[in-house]
Every structure is written in structure tokens, then in C-alpha cells.
Design a protein that fits this description.
The structure is a single chain. This protein is mainly beta. The protein has one domain (about 25-319): Neuraminidase, CATH 2.120.10.30. About 5% of the residues lie in helices and about 40% in strands. The chain is built from 2 helices and 27 strands. The protein has helices at about 1-5, 10-25; strands spanning about 30, 40-45, 60, 70-75, 75-80, 85-90, 100-105, 110-115, 125-130, 135-140, 155, 165, 175, 180-185, 190, 195, 200, 210, 215-220, 225-230, 245-250, 255-260, 265-270, 275-280, 290-295, 305, 310-319. A hairpin with a 5-residue loop joins strand 11 and strand 12.
């Protein structure tokens, strides 16, 4: 068998090796031009509703109810697309969007946007908008150590309306009630050290996933916020995480996808956190990335990735 494979050249050999790996359950690496039988490239999003170019997109999120796609780019705006990725509307300064970092939609349809200090408002805050994007109020984060330097970076809202917030350089995730009052701080530990958490994601069952770019780990909690497991291994080679920034959960297929900012890849794990394969790599064509920051898996199982330094968003189908 080995002699047979050695005689086959090019991408055809890669396809056979990939198929054998999947068949026998072994980890495999899918190059960008051959994403394997479970991942296929769908399309690229690169313009807003006026036909202007996206500018270093850094965040993407899909509304679980309407399936609309929310994108934040480097111009300080939130661009909203329908579920076919047709641009519908751009929220900007006229709506109270000035320096958005991340966002989430609550069970009542309200939009929560983490915003860094701006010229018109010198305080970091979470801005709350009605379902029709009318500004309602600001939540200012107070009553805990380093609250004055806490810039809300990523947010998640569970089915009860509880809000979870991370910053770029803070050990843990804040837990806020519906009114914005601090109720808890969840901080994973590595030894005696509290871990800096970069991102927080909730799946369809309200299980929580905390991403640590520093440690190269993802920490998983159940809906009662009891720790279940952690996965990921720090490193710069295949199957390891150099600088993970986001995780997307595909509960239908039992897979988890992690964007690795420095390795320019999407690393794929099974539901227990075992490494399966990765795809991508540094490049400019379809399926290649330059510093992917955020990804989101929507209700259809589509993997939506902010290919930040290629100034576009790439969409993949999973099977």
C-alpha cells in the first residue's frame, strides 16, 4: 500500500491519504485547496451594501433566530447581512455605534455591543439596542478590580438573558444579570494562576466555551457553569494552537472549529476535544487566510471566518 501511494503524485495522493485518515479515524491535515470530504469552500464576502470594500473585518456573529449575519470591521461599523450574505444595512455613529469590539443578541432580540471609549464617550461600555437598532442604554462595568481598564471585547447572552463578557487582557469572564449588575467572575486556573480569557461563546444548549489565546486552551463549562473539560495544546505545529482567537461549535456534526491567528488555520476537533484535522494556511486564494480572527458556525453548519488581513470574510460548508 505504501509503495502504491508513493507512486501517485500531486493532489490526488493527498485526497487518497485524506480519505484513508477519515475512514480509519486518524487525525489529518487538509490543505487549503483540498478541504476534504467534510469541508467545502462556499463563497467570499468582501463588500458592504454600497459596494465598498470591507476594511479589516474582525468579528462575525449570526442571529440564531433570524439567521442574519453581523459583521464588525475596522471602520467602526456593524454591517448586517441576510442569511444569503446579501448586505442589508450598516449601523454606525448615527446609530450610536462608535468603537465596537464584539456583540451578541439576547433572547428578546436586543443587541448588546461592547464598545471601547470614544471621543463622544470616554468610558468603555456595553451599549444596548432594541431589535430595530434604536439605542436604549449603556452598561458601565464597575465594582471589580481593574474595572476602569476593562474594555468589553467579546460577549455572549444565554437563554435567560445572562450576559458574559471578556476583555483582551483580563483573567476570566464577567457574568452580568439583565440589568448589567455584576454577579460573578468565572476564572479558569492553570496551577494557581488565573487564565486570561480572550473570547466567550455559548452553544445551542448554553454550554460555555472560553478561549485563552495565552494558554492555547479552550475551557468548556455546562449550562450551570460547572467545568466539563478543556482541550487544545499550545504550539506552532499541526494539531496545536499558537494564538487561538475564537471557537465555533457545530452540534449537528459534533465538531468544534478554532481560528488560529498566527498559524492562519482553522483547527477542527471532535465533540470531546480530540484533534481531527485543520485547513487553511497563509495565502490569498480561496480557502487560504491571513490572520483569521473570528469565526462563527450558523444554524446550517456554515463556518463563517473573518479573514482579517485579506480584508474579507470566507464561508465554508460542513458535511
Amino acid at each position: 500500500m505504501a509503495d502504491f501511494i508513493r507512486k501517485i503524485k500531486g493532489l490526488h495522493a493527498v485526497s487518497i491519504l485524506w480519505g484513508l485518515a477519515v475512514l480509519y479515524g486518524a487525525p489529518a491535515i487538509a490543505p487549503a485547496q483540498q478541504l476534504g470530504p467534510v469541508i467545502t469552500f462556499q463563497e467570499i464576502i468582501s463588500t458592504d451594501e454600497d459596494g465598498g470594500r470591507l476594511f479589516f473585518p474582525s468579528f462575525v456573529y449570526t442571529d440564531p433566530v433570524t439567521e442574519e449575519v453581523y459583521l464588525i470591521d475596522g471602520k467602526g461599523r456593524v454591517i448586517i447581512f441576510n442569511n444569503h450574505f446579501f448586505p442589508l444595512y450598516t449601523a454606525s455613529k448615527r446609530n450610536g455605534i462608535e468603537n465596537p469590539q464584539g456583540l451578541a443578541i439576547g433572547p428578546d432580540g436586543r443587541l448588546y455591543v461592547g464598545q471601547a471609549a470614544s471621543e463622544s464617550n470616554r468610558r468603555h461600555r456595553i451599549s444596548v439596542f432594541s431589535p430595530c437598532l434604536k439605542w436604549e442604554r449603556n452598561i458601565y462595568l464597575e465594582g471589580f478590580e481593574r474595572s476602569d481598564t476593562f474594555v468589553p471585547y467579546r460577549l455572549a447572552v444565554d437563554k435567560k438573558g445572562t450576559l458574559y463578557v471578556t476583555a483582551n487582557n483580563y483573567p476570566g469572564v464577567l457574568v452580568l444579570d439583565n440589568s448589567g449588575r455584576l454577579r460573578d467572575i468565572i476564572s479558569p486556573l492553570e496551577g494557581d494562576k488565573k487564565v486570561i480569557i480572550t473570547n466567550v461563546i455559548l452553544d445551542s444548549e448554553d454550554n460555555m466555551y472560553l478561549v485563552s489565546e495565552e494558554e492555547g486552551h479552550i475551557y468548556v463549562y455546562d449550562r450551570e457553569r460547572k467545568p466539563l473539560r478543556q482541550f487544545g495544546e499550545k504550539g506552532g505545529s499541526s494539531g496545536k494552537l499558537s494564538r487561538p482567537r475564537s471557537v465555533g461549535v457545530d452540534s449537528r456534526h459534533g465538531r468544534m472549529y478554532v481560528s488560529d491567528y498566527m498559524r492562519h488555520t482553522i483547527t477542527v476537533y471532535d465533540r470531546e476535544g480530540a484533534f481531527l484535522f485543520e485547513f487553511g494556511g497563509l495565502g490569498w486564494g480561496e480557502g487560504w487566510f491571513q490572520h483569521p480572527i473570528e469565526l462563527h458556525v450558523d444554524n446550517k453548519g456554515r463556518i463563517i471566518v473573518t479573514d482579517t488581513f485579506n480584508q474579507r470574510v470566507q464561508v465554508f460548508n460542513s458535511w
